[in-house]
Design brief:
Elements: H1 2-12, H2 15-18, H3 23-41, H4 49-54, H5 61-75, H6 90-94, H7 111-120, H8 124-127, H9 132-144, H10 151-155
Length: about 160
Amino acid sequence: MIYCALVQSLLSYGILAWGACRSNALHNLLITQKYIIKNMLRLPRLFSTDLLFDEKNFLSIRHLYLKKALHYFFRTRHTHERSQQTRVTRRMLAHNYIEPFRSSVFGQRCYAYLAPRFFNRLPDSIKNLESMGSFKSKSSGWVQDIPYRMLGEILGFVP
């Protein structure tokens, strides 16, 4: 599809560096993305954003960020620290990788903090895959299935 080749590839470039910035910084980019998609599909200007991303199977900027962060984390997961607790706790059972502690809100928007959180929220059937190809397809499907309005809860900040 032309959108994937021209628009989504440009949006994905460097998204690990800027994808977690505040919503007001991404607002104009999101408006432009929606405008391009609506024009390509010949949809009315006031067509619902929820339907655009949920039913038409396009990835919003935040969905793209989540997808790219998961793929990069999976590729580099051997460099991240796993939980080494000796006693079993609910936190250890629920998560595989240590989520770094940040004392300020500023540090909670960087990739090093967010990627382990995202990966730990994946279902075990996806986390335990061995090959990159199968992980990409399963995790991309999981990201695609997240409704646009629910994305903020998954990411931990406003989409």
